[in-house]
Specification:
By secondary structure, the chain is α+β, with helices and mostly antiparallel strands. It has 2 domains: about 120 residues, 3-Layer(aba) Sandwich (Rossmann fold); about 160 residues, Sandwich (Tumour Suppressor Smad4). It has 9 helices and 15 strands. The strands form 2 sheets. Strands 5, 6, 7, 8, 9, 10, 11, 12, 13, 14 and 15 form an 11-stranded antiparallel beta sheet that branches. It has a 4-stranded parallel beta sheet with strand order 2-1-3-4, with helices on both faces. Strand 5 and strand 6 form a beta hairpin. The longest helix is centred in the C-terminal third of the chain and has 15 residues. The protein is elongated and about 60 Å long. Bound molecules: adenosine-5'-triphosphate. The site of adenosine-5'-triphosphate has 21 residues, from helix 3.
Length: about 325
């Protein structure tokens, strides 16, 4: 009998999962799994529970929650020598990572994906002692209020919010930064940098179009020092995937990246506060095996609000060009 450990965050998203748990347990049991569930109690608890599931040699771990919960579970697994296969049931607010994997939003369909056993090993990002599945990055903000972690999430974690914050852009201040990526070096004043592991950075798939999740490579974006008008124009171009030859942006793929700043700069990891730089980013190639949807199970992106928002934003900035 295979054993499954469900780790769920009761506070994620609209808190709808806990009512569904009995049905989900039945589904796993009927498919031949012996199943147990752990309800997280606080921040960091999913990491401890995931490490314990490795030590107890569960065959699979199912992470139920949003990006924060998935990050914690991946963190708990990544340091272990025995790593169970990982299933995801999206139950958070934005679910960027589940979206990148095209995992359906319905709990039942997400369970079907796991039970269908379509397994692929994917890359995991490591920076210093932390791990990330989606994105890490940093930028110097002058506003003290953005030192608050939850605010940072809105600024850098989900790139969508970076865009929403065109009004926040003046608060980015250029910082002299040295970035070593594989055998090359960039040195100069930068507004922000992003290191993406998946191709869905805040749902903006065009930013890192060629990103693959099992090639051992990050997509590194560096936005160099610009004035306000340029900043808005460059970000808009990047979201449309039209930044390739833009002199204000460095976009390269690399396995190993070191970032050192002259002044204190906070690090953001999968949308949460992740300490301060310097940071050594290492791509752990095909580190965890995930249950992924087959082609006919893949969620078709249908997010009219976001599309409308991008349209509005990019049209507005056409006037500035
Ligand atoms: N019992 C709990 N009480 C309060 N917070 C918790 C509890 N269990 C986990 N957490 C924390 O809740 C935070 C948010 O969780 P999560 O990211 O899964 O949901 P979300 O914010 O709704 O979704 P998303 O990140 O996709 O927008 C995580 O940082 C996690 O550490």
């Amino acid at each position: 009998m295979k054993r499954a450990r469900i780790i769920y965050n009761p506070t994620s998203g609209r808190e709808a999962f806990k009512q569904k748990l009995p049905d989900i347990l039945v589904k796993f049991e009927e498919a031949g799994y012996v199943t147990s569930a752990h309800r997280t109690r606080s921040k960091g608890d999913a990491t401890t529970a995931a490490t314990k599931a490795c030590e107890d040699e569960f065959d699979i771990v199912v992470a139920v929650g949003g990006d924060g919960t998935i990050n914690e579970v991946v963190t708990g697994i990544s340091n272990q020598s025995y790593r169970p296969k990982l299933g995801i049931i999206p139950a958070g607010t934005t679910n960027d990572f589940a979206r990148a994997l095209k995992i359906p939003k319905s709990f039942e369909k997400a369970v079907d994906v796991i039970l269908d056993n379509n397994i692929h090993a994917l890359d995991v990002g490591q920076v210093n002692d932390c791990f990330f599945v989606n994105i890490a990055g940093g930028g110097k903000l002058t506003e003290v209020s953005y030192e608050v972690p939850s605010k940072l999430k809105t600024v850098l974690g989900q790139l969508a919010y970076v865009m929403k914050g065109v009004e926040m852009l003046p608060r980015f201040r250029p910082i002299h930064t040295r970035i070593e990526y594989d055998d090359e070096v960039f040195e100069g004043e930068i507004m922000l940098f992003l290191i993406a592991n998946s191709n869905s950075v805040g749902g903006f798939e065009k930013l890192a179009q060629n990103a693959k999740m099992n090639d051992g490579l990050f997509d590194l974006f560096v936005l160099k020092k610009t004035n306000m008008a340029e900043f808005a124009r460059v970000i808009t171009a990047a979201l449309r995937g039209q930044h390739v030859n833009d002199p204000n942006i460095l976009h390269v793929q690399a396995r190993d990246i070191k970032v050192v700043t002259d002044e204190k700069m906070q690090l953001n990891i999968d949308g949460e506060y992740g300490g301060v730089l310097p940071g050594h980013f290492v791509n752990l190639q095909e580190h965890i095996e995930f249950f992924l949807p087959t082609e006919d199970q893949q969620m078709i992106e249908d997010d009219p609000v976001k599309q409308e928002y991008i349209e509005k934003l990019t049209t507005e900035h056409d006037f500035e060009e």
